[in-house]
Amino acid sequence: MAFVSGALVMSANSEFDFTAAVMGGIEREQLLLGFGFSEDVFGLSLPSSPEPTPPPSLQPGSATPLEEPASARASATIQLEELFSLSPLSSPDPPPPPSPCLHPTTPAKDSSTLQLPPLPSKKQLHLQRIKALSRTNHAKSREKARTATYAAHKIRSKIEERYVKPATAIQTDVAMNGRTFAERVASTAFVAIDDRKRSQKVYNLEDLVGDESKHKFRYVAWDGTPAPLSDSNNLAMGVLAGQPNAQEWQQLMRQAAEELEKHRGHCFIPKKIRERGGRHRRGKFIALQCGISHGGGQPHPKVMEQVPANAKVLGELNRHEAFIRIAGFASSIMATWAPDLYSHYCDYLGRLHAHDPKLQRPFPSSVFTATTYNFGPQTACFPHYDFNNLPFGWCSITALGNFDPRKGGHLVLWDLHLVIEFPPGMTILIPSAILAHSNVRIQAGETRYSVVHYTAGALFRWVENGFQKSDVYLQSLTEEQLHEVQAENAKRWEYGLSLFRKLAPSTTL
């Protein structure tokens, strides 16, 4: 680049790639936009500060015929270096010259014979604009997620009047505040005690109910009418929620089952599980988890990592309307039947989300942070506890598929001695960390799937500890503070039970 007789001309250089330089300038312009610059990359306009006056040695009168006028050269250099930190576009950076000139030039050639490379195509420029817009939208989404209220379902009074007050509870003779359940809760009451010694067996209906059965459990014929599960103190420890009053619900549930069947063959199964014939702690069926996890030695909460095949499957399922509706319904049920417990979730998980907005749960409409899809095709769980969940928290289970709920697929609550009909499309919420639960085997030729929503108890512990691991948090405390924390831990289980709804005795049977 040179000034000859006051005119700007370009010098030819075989090593110069004009298109690459322009595209590089575009990328740098977008980078600068993120820092508040608004200069046009093609105009190379100066920043708002005034242009410095060139020194006398660089005044136009001292320029040789083959040199640029110093003021223009300094101006162009300031523009390039201040805006992009680039060397002149006409040539690669040369070694520093001994002369006072900022950049050596080559003899100017007739600009009429200069052949410039073509400008970027419309498609290339369009792609650049799309990328810039995408980055802007992502930034807006992150800010919206950071400031949004966490899963705030509004509890409408007419829902309370229509479903909660007239409901008849399923009464049991167990006490949630009794010794049996207290012994299953860890000392801090953030998680339950690990119990992997239960039977890995799928039971038939006749094994559990009837005069000839070994267990003689109580049979509950359920048609989907909402009904809370009551302990001996009339605490609503869970709820048979049923389904929304929506005409399209059954069609959506059929679509959900079809999606799970369609994607089952595309799931990646770890080698250890394949070697066991597909058997894992909860049963013998394909299951994929997604969402936010913590515990088990993790240094901090994180979104569960997935292999590419499973990431694709989970992404498609999480975007499907049927599963979005299931997640929202499950969350609204907790808000309706256990509003204090729901508020507890929103408080702790809202703080977690505000602290680290990257921790995105699978469904923004849900208060739960994790989801498991059980792909069947004949999903029937072994008796088990979900001991990593919050002990007084709820887990939502939605049954899907094509099976006769009077003959199989029942929900078995071992501690309550209940066998409950569980029709396809229905949802039940229970404290799965402390209630052992399983399913009755379905008949040959039938299909059963399920989708489960839950939250790890360790996430609540992480928030309580000031977003740090327990050992780090406890080491930072004084002896007096440590005693206070221990006292709070001892009361947490009792506090959690106080979050359950107290039912009127007349609403139980």
Helix content: 25-40%
**Unreliable stretches:** 2-9, 32-92, 99-106
Count of strand segments: 18
User: What is the gyration radius calculated from CA atoms?
Assistant: 33 Å
The percent range for strand residues is 5-15%
Principal-axis shape: globular
Structural class, judged by helices and strands? Answer: alpha+beta
Task: Give the quaternary arrangement of the chains.
Answer: single chain
Main sheet characteristics: 10 strands, mixed
How many domains? The number is: 2
What gap, in angstroms, lies between the N and C termini? 92 Å
Annotated CATH topology of the largest domain = Double-stranded beta-helix
Do you know the CATH architecture of the largest domain?
4-Layer Sandwich
Count every helix, treating DSSP H or I runs of 4 or more residues as helices.
14
Level-1 CATH class name of the largest domain: Alpha Beta
Whole-number mean pLDDT? 81
Biased composition (Low complexity): 102-116
Biased composition (Pro residues): 49-58, 91-101
Region (Disordered): 45-74, 86-121
Structural commentary:
The protein is α+β, with helices and mostly antiparallel strands and 509 residues long. It folds into two domains: 2-141, no CATH class; 153-507, Double-stranded beta-helix, CATH 3.60.130. It is built from 14 helices and 18 strands. It has helices spanning 18-33, 70-83, 122-147, 157-164, 179-182, 205-208, 249-264, 271-275, 308-319, 321-337, 339-355, 457-464, 470-475, 479-498, and strands spanning 2-4, 7-9, 170-171, 218-220, 227-230, 235-242, 279-280, 283-284, 286-293, 302-303, 370-376, 395-402, 411-413, 418-420, 427-430, 437-439, 447-454, 501-502. The strands form four sheets. Strands 3, 5, 6, 9, 10, 11, 12, 15, 17 and 18 form a ten-stranded mixed sheet that branches. Helix 11 crosses helix 12. It is globular and about 100 Å long. The termini are far apart. Mean pLDDT is 81; it is low at 2-9, 32-92 and 99-106.
